[in-house]
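Data deposition worksheet. Section B asks for the primary sequence of the deposited chain exactly as it was used as input, without tags or linkers unless they were present during the calculation. Section C holds the resulting structure in token form. Section D is free text for depositor observations; keep each observation to a single sentence. Incomplete worksheets are returned to the depositor.
Section A, Depositor: J.P.
Section B:
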Amino acid sequence: MERLTIKDIPLEEYTITPGSACQGCGPALAARLVFKALGNKVIRHGVPSCPDSVTRTPHTFSVFESAGAALTGISRALKVLGREDVLAVGFIGDGGTYDIGFQALSAAAERNEDILWFCKNNEAYMNTGIQRSSATPLYAWTTTTQVGPRGRGKETPRKNLPFIIAAHHVPYVATASIAFPTDLIGKVLHAKRLRGFRFIDILCPCPTGWRFDPSRTIEVARLAVQTGMWALYEIIDGREFRLTYKPKKLKPVEEYLRLQGRFRHLTDREIEEIQRMVNENWERLLKLDEMGEFPL
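Section C:
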């Protein structure tokens, strides 16, 4: 990735304000940062998600299942037309990435199609009513993972999709956060120059679905990284691994969890369980970073 400072962030704006976004919308801010870095030589493809009308760039639209196939067609058509200066870009939520769209996503990655795919990850199906996705964390409340006598929220941890995509041996996979704009834009600029399948998973807190005050979106996104709930890293060619943010000491996960209504039901034991999982995962990531290798 490119190492940037705030002064290096492009000034041009390619997003529609306010578009269809709620107050404090994380995905809308992700769009603003991503397309600042990409510029206007893109064709953006989307599926049903929120916000869905976010950029002043040409865009296409399809059903959840077919984004990978649609982007393949766009990319190959651009090549036939000799317009390899124009990028085929997917800007798609976790439902259309982790779940319903995964088959076509995996197929496109396996073929190493010339596609740049961004997951605007707000960890649930927010635009259809806050239903769980496989990106939803353990114990999180959603409308389909209720809390009460028969449930404690989502019963399983979220899918490790970046590692799954990296196992397809694609040129570039990264995670990012809207609270770390220079890290995010540096990764976008790096991926922009590559060819083949590139995937960046961006954590985008949703005040509506996560149940926090809209003014605290960046605070929540930053704490996700500082506590280790969301690590920032990149994987190159399915072989090299690098953490791009390493705090000297992780903050307690409770600081992150207690800000969100979707976790307000957690007991001390459940918080301790999440803390243990985060600690174990962070130790694994530190070892990978020390070796500089991705464990295929």
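Section D:
Residues 241 and 291 are 8 Å apart (CA to CA).
The two ends are 21 Å apart (CA to CA).
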